[in-house]
Amino acid sequence: MVCCRRCILSREEKLSVLIDKASRNSDAVEAKRKNRTLRCIRILCALTFISILFISVAYVMSDKRGDAFIMSLKKIKAVEGYLDSHSKFFSVVFNIVFIFSDYSLHILYGLFVIFYNFLCYAAIQHLNKLHGLLKNSPTENETVLLIRKYDGVLRSMESIENLLCLPMYFVALSLMVGLFRIGYALCFFGKSDILFYAYCCSSLSYQFCLMVTMIMSASEANRVAAKCRSLVASLQKPFEKDSSNLFWRQLNVTRKVQLTLWNTFIIERSLVWDALGTLFTYGILMGTLISVNES
């Protein structure tokens, strides 16, 4: 009987070790897959932005706004001779200025979303690491040390939420307005120019990728934070019964920290489909109003 019990206990230990390894491997595979998805979206974002720049260069060069601006400057007699001798150089310079003035907001939104994604990615990496360590922390001292680190990550997420929830709301709103404006131009102001359609398609893909990247990274941070919170709550129960332990009585580690848009919308993956549904609804409404006015 003793030998049978030992065999059963050893098999149970081996089985628990295998289950722990399988869970860690599954978590690692899932994290790699999601990181790969975010990386692909960022690469697509960069490629579409580069295509916007190339198309806009061709569009502005064909529009010859720089030449028109030089012709207006030539009316000033003091600079007429100087502009005539350097007309090609100034034409290129003014065209570049027009390009960056048109797409300065695109560049600003892109840099802002990249910065936000970097913060979310750092929070995700720290939370995933702490989640794996908390699963295997055998003693109370190790658990307390890890939960202190978890509380530090929560404080960082709270700082991100307090500082960036309002700016990210306006970024998301501006991206939706940009998507609606370009879709409206494609539907009602279509041209036979290939550059026009190429520019519109590139702008649509760029702004949509920015919005998807922002929502995906923030929603993943919220998901990992919720997973860690449930694990910390289960670890806290055996220790918090000791009334002499000030750590568990003073530290509120089970508080809910979520990234939102202006404390109004909790950032989840379903927000992408909600945004697209809103755009289609307003597009149908605008098209109906225009058709009624024309009739």
Question: Which features does this protein show?
Answer:
single chain, 295 residues, mainly alpha, two-stranded antiparallel ribbon, transmembrane helix, membrane, transmembrane
Overall 3D geometry?
A: elongated
Number of helices: 9
What is the terminal-to-terminal distance?
92 Å
Beta strand count = 2
Main sheet attributes: strand count, strand direction, barrel closure: 2 strands, antiparallel
The overall pLDDT, averaged over residues, is: 76
**Approximate strand percentage:** under 5%
Q: What would you say this structure looks like, in words?
A:
- The protein is mainly alpha-helical.
- Helix content is 86%, strand content 1%.
- It has nine helices and two strands.
- It has a two-stranded antiparallel sheet.
- A hairpin with a 3-residue loop joins strand 1 (260-261) and strand 2.
- The radius of gyration is 28 Å and the shape is elongated.
- The termini are far apart.
- The mean pLDDT is 76.
Summarize the SSE layout with pairings.
Elements: H1 2-63, H2 65-73, H3 77-85, H4 87-102, H5 104-135, H6 140-188, H7 194-240, H8 246-250, E1 260-261, E2 265-266, H9 270-294
Helix pairs in contact: 1-4, 1-7, 2-4, 5-6, 5-7, 6-7, 6-9
In short:
This is Gustatory receptor. By secondary structure, the protein is mostly helical. The chain has helices spanning 2-63, 65-73, 77-85, 87-102, 104-135, 140-188, 194-240, 246-250, 270-294; strands at residues 260-261, 265-266.
